[in-house]
């Protein structure tokens, strides 16, 4: 019988926190499948992005679930980046409620990204201190891919909406993968390609991938595009910056949690010079260029793109 999240996580506050996130993800997943909230809102988030109704809905669903858990002291999100009380004790949780706003209308896979720290604030900490991080993928299947600090590797669970008398909500999440390595392999997911106009290092790197017949696999959704590196066990994802196309990805809500996942699965992460897990968190609104993938691929990114424009 497949292991479930119920038996994978030891009893305790982290299990309660992950359970709250799964309950929210189940609700968001059903919202998306019903096509709810696709319309734009007049409001913008703290990063100045126009918000979709479903962005704000997902943000509220996660906030409510974390409040109900009683184990979360502080939350902040891409839709509302200010750290704010969550009424519980124990963790600080940072999240991007719905990553891929620009591709929801095209019905591509999107996701929720989260990072958990055992403290009341993220400020002054680093991603390497997180106790757990990961993402929910809302594609043909709804899946959770995450890692915890006191367990090896990264793990994936698929949501099977079964209801039986003696099962808990976490029993609906069945183990379907363990990720132990990300090797070199010819798969590339090149974000912010328009920055190749004035980022010559990135231009040369893209030419390298193409002249070495790398396979292009890019949807424009960070969650499915990074998650594929774990599933395929190979390749490279990047979203570099340039003067004309500055960094857009949010360090705390997107870059660090996915770096935690990739590095637990044996891959590497970088901002062009250091691991994203070694960048001190000085605020909740920082952006960064990113690269994730096999050791060799990330080293090539650092050598050819580096940190010129971030
Ligand atoms: O269009 P680009 O520059 O390739 O960047 C796409 C990136 O921006 C994002 O859409 C940003 O995410 P949001 O949808 O949360 O704003 C990522 O999912 C994706 O990887």
From TrEMBL:
Keyword NADP found: no
Annotated ranges, domain Fructose-1-6-bisphosphatase class I N-terminal: 7-159
GO biological process: fructose 1,6-bisphosphate metabolic process; fructose 6-phosphate metabolic process; fructose metabolic process; gluconeogenesis; sucrose biosynthetic process
Gene3D superfamilies named among the record's database cross-references: 3.40.190.80, Fructose-1,6-Bisphosphatase, subunit A, domain 1
Pfam hit, one: FBPase
Entry's EC annotation: 3.1.3.11
Catalytic EC class: hydrolase
Cofactor needs: Mg(2+)
InterPro entries in the record: FBPase_C_dom, FBPase_class-1, FBPase_N, FBPtase, Fructose_bisphosphatase_AS, SBPase
GO cellular component, one term: cytoplasm
Catalyzed reaction equations: beta-D-fructose 1,6-bisphosphate + H2O = beta-D-fructose 6-phosphate + phosphate
Source organism superkingdom: Eukaryota
Pathway, per record: Carbohydrate biosynthesis; Calvin cycle
Protein name: fructose-bisphosphatase
Native species: Galdieria partita
């Amino acid at each position: 019988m497949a292991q479930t999240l119920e038996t994978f996580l030891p009893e305790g506050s982290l299990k309660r926190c992950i359970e709250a996130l799964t309950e929210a993800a189940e609700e968001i997943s059903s919202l998306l499948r019903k096509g709810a909230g696709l319309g734009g809102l007049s409001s913008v988030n703290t990063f100045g992005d126009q918000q979709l109704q479903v962005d704000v809905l997902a943000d509220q669903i996660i906030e409510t679930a974390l409040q109900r858990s009683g184990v979360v002291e502080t939350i902040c999100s891409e839709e509302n980046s200010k750290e704010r009380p969550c009424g519980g004790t124990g963790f600080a949780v940072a999240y991007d409620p719905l990553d891929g706003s620009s591709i929801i209308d095209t019905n591509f896979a999107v996701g929720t990204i989260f990072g958990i720290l055992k403290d009341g604030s993220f400020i002054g900490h680093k991603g390497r201190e997180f106790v757990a991080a990961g993402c929910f993928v809302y594609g043909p299947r709804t899946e959770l891919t995450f890692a915890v600090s006191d367990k090896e590797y990264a793990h994936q669970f698929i949501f099977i909406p079964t209801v039986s008398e003696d099962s808990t909500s976490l029993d609906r999440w069945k183990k379907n993968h363990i990720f132990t390595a990300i090797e070199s392999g010819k798969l590339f997911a090149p974000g912010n390609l328009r920055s190749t106009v004035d980022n010559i290092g990135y231009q040369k790197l893209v030419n390298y991938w193409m002249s070495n017949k790398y396979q292009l696999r890019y949807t424009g959704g960070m969650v499915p595009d990074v998650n594929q590196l774990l599933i395929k066990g190979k390749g490279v994802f990047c979203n570099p910056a340039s003067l004309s196309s500055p960094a857009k990805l949010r360090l705390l809500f997107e870059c660090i949690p996915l770096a935690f996942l990739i590095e637990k699965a044996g891959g590497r992460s970088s901002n062009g010079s250091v691991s994203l897990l070694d960048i001190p968190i000085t605020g909740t609104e920082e952006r960064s260029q990113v690269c994730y993938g096999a050791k060799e691929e990330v080293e090539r990114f650092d050598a050819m793109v580096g940190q010129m424009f971030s």
